[in-house]
């Protein structure tokens, strides 16, 4: 009984937030539409790298493809953060998106470095 009461109180507090309509002008603006396209491409690249990891099965290039997959995941999270900020769902600090982009680029370059090291 106490669990049900606590859950009911928690859900009533959580449901008391403001409900806002989506800003259609932001959704159809060219930068946001481009971010949606980039997000779709990043998800496709992540799926492709998962398939390559399945084919490698622990070979020499497995580590570098894991790093590529991590960079695609970080880039996808960056695009989600950008879209949530554009749709005004979440207010992010200004340094969050560039920091995530730098992390994604760094992971991608590290994956290239690891691939070069294996192939030499």
Characteristic terms for this protein:
extended, 120 residues, mainly alpha, 5 helices
Overall average residue pLDDT: 85
How far apart, in Å, are the first and last alpha carbons?
66 Å
Number of strands: 0
Radius of gyration: 20 Å
Question: What is the number of helices?
Answer: 5
Quick one: overall form?
extended
- Helical residues, percent: over 70%
Major sheet, described briefly? Answer: none
Order of helices and strands: HHHHH
Total count of domains: 1
Structural class: mainly alpha
How much of the sequence is in beta strands?
under 5%
Uncertain spans:
none
Question: Could you characterize what this model shows?
Answer:
The protein has one domain (21-119). Helices cover 78% and strands 0% of the residues. The longest helix is centred in the middle third of the chain and has 27 residues, at 30-56. The chain has 120 residues and is mainly α. The model has no long low-confidence stretch (mean pLDDT 85). α3 (30-56) runs antiparallel to α4 (62-86) and α4 (62-86) packs antiparallel against α5 (96-119).
């Amino acid at each position: 009984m106490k669990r049900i009461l606590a859950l009911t109180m928690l859900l009533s507090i959580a449901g008391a937030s403001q409900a806002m309509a989506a800003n259609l002008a932001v959704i159809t603006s060219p930068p946001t539409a481009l971010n949606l396209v980039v997000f779709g491409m990043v998800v496709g690249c992540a799926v492709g790298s998962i398939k390559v990891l399945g084919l490698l099965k622990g070979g020499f290039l497995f580590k570098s493809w894991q790093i590529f997959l991590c960079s695609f995941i970080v880039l996808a999270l960056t695009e989600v953060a950008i879209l949530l900020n554009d749709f005004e769902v979440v207010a992010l600090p200004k340094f969050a998106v560039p920091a995530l982009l730098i992390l994604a680029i760094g992971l991608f370059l590290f994956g290239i470095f690891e691939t070069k090291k294996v192939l030499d």
